[in-house]
Amino acid sequence: MAMPSSRDPESFLPLSAPVLNILLALGGGFLHPYGIMQAIDERTGGKAVILPGTLYTSIARMLDQGLIVDAPERPDPEDDDARRRYYRLTELGCQVVAGEVARLSVLIRLAEEQHLVPASGQIGGKAG
User: How far apart are alpha carbons 121 and 15 in whole angstroms?
Assistant: First the structure.
């Protein structure tokens, strides 16, 4: 697989479900890995589970690609373990998320047009 261009957000697409979920979790601010897993679990109602191996491999790849960086910000030291690493989205990471959401929106519209999902976008619609 070719390495995405660091300048073209489109070259990162499509994103895998774990990577998209991680990037979306970081969209709310800086988080440590366990916080990322908690945010994903909370936002998906437990439907998206990212195992630690997948999480750490994805974080390492996204750091290399410039989608995320180590966050210098930290919560109050009394509420935090100094050994934790925190991550945040970069501008490129934000652009990649926006591109993926736009790509998925097109697919959702196509599914709606084919009456595979209700026009409201809720999954579980009738098949044609």
Answer: 20
CA distance 37 to 40: 5
Question: Which residues make beta-bridge pairs with 31?
Answer: 87
CA–CA separation, 60 and 63 (whole Å):
5
For residue 69, what are its two tokens?
């960086």
- Burial track 53-69 (b if 16+ CB lie within 10 A, e otherwise): eebeebbeebeebebbb
Q: Are 36 and 19 in contact (CB under 8 A)?
A: no
> Is the alpha carbon torsion for 35, 82, 87, 90 positive or negative?
positive
| Contact yes or no for 48/17 (Cβ under 8 A) | yes
Q: What is the pLDDT along the chain (128 residues), one digit of tens a residue?
A: 455 656 799 999 999 999 999 999 999 999 999 999 999 999 999 999 999 999 999 999 999 999 999 988 776 666 666 678 999 999 999 999 999 999 999 999 999 999 998 886 455 544 44
For residue 68, the cross-strand partners are 89
